[in-house]
Amino acid sequence: MEIDNDPAYQQMINGDLYMESPKLLKLRNDVRGKIMKYNQIADNDERNAGMASLLRSVGDRFFVEPTFEFSYGVNITIGNHFYANHGVEICDEGQVTIGNDCKFGPKVGLYTPVHPLDPTVRRTEAERTAPITIGNDCWIGGSAMILPGVTLGNNVVVGAGSVVTHSFPDNVVVVGNPARVLKENKPSA
After folding, report:
1. pTM of the predicted model, to two decimals?
2. Could you give the residue numbers annotated as active site?
3. Least CB-packed of 50, 53, 137, 180 within 10 Å?
């Protein structure tokens, strides 16, 4: 992709402190306009094809309800059989990788930006990112938030309204703010 050659883009996806470049701003504005257009399309096949065309890659059976929002799209990789209910938002300044057979409830948010704690740096509008990785067979309940740097293993269920501030291994149900393990979630044999 053309954006791959932009130094600010490389800093952004590498997690270095960066400022938005003219190329990043143009990409964000172009994508924003297309997202607004695609979210207005009632036909599922047409809407989903449009949204999928804006992402780095998607597998088979990609389905998103309107509204589906993201920052750039080029940093989102989604496996096979993905479903996102209404109002899902992905701030993909950093890399977002979602495995196979994942489902998101309404108003789920994935946030990769890491804003500086130092107010002097924060006023410059510089920020960093940390990637989010979600394994296979995960269910993220409605209004859950996944914060920067989180990795969820396979077969993780995140309870509705949870705020996931750190990573979790395979086969657990996590709930709360901050999210914590409620119980194991072993798949049936």
Report:
1. 0.96
2. 115
3. 53
